[in-house]
């Protein structure tokens, strides 16, 4: 499937991380999504009910990233992917990238991130 809906650089403030300071003070997180679905029908009908509402996707991701603290970015990404696949019937698969721009790791780099791809099980 080649059709995708992209939501890029969504920004949130959450409390995920291994260190107590991260869980107490929190930090910024960015999320990029690719939602794989057939966009031919909504392209023809121009009807929102035939597609995936971007605002609903944003709210779902916001609730997860700004919600209960997790130790690992991997767990945040997995929960986002699982919730997306359950919440949107027409979505066949998704790619989720969770970025931590300011992790408490010594060194010079732009960010750390995880990226996962998940498909609906037939």
Automatic annotation (TrEMBL):
Pfam family, one: FolB
Domain Dihydroneopterin aldolase/epimerase: 5-118
Superkingdom to which the source organism belongs: Bacteria
Name listed for the protein in its UniProt record: 7,8-dihydroneopterin aldolase
SMART domains the UniProt entry points to: FolB (SM00905)
Keyword Transit peptide: no
Biological role: Catalyzes the conversion of 7,8-dihydroneopterin to 6-hydroxymethyl-7,8-dihydropterin.
EC number: 4.1.2.25
Pathway this chain belongs to: Cofactor biosynthesis; tetrahydrofolate biosynthesis; 2-amino-4-hydroxy-6-hydroxymethyl-7,8-dihydropteridine diphosphate from 7,8-dihydroneopterin triphosphate: step 3/4
CDD domains: DHNA_DHNTPE (cd00534)
Catalytically driven reaction(s): 7,8-dihydroneopterin = 6-hydroxymethyl-7,8-dihydropterin + glycolaldehyde
Species of origin: Virgibacillus alimentarius
Keywords in alphabetical order: Folate biosynthesis, Lyase
Gene3D superfamilies with a match to the protein in the record: 3.30.1130.10
UniProt-recorded Gene Ontology molecular function terms: dihydroneopterin aldolase activity
InterPro entries: Dihydroneopterin_aldolase, FolB_dom, GTP-CH-I_C/QueF
Homology family: Belongs to the DHNA family.
SUPFAM superfamilies in UniProt: Tetrahydrobiopterin biosynthesis enzymes-like
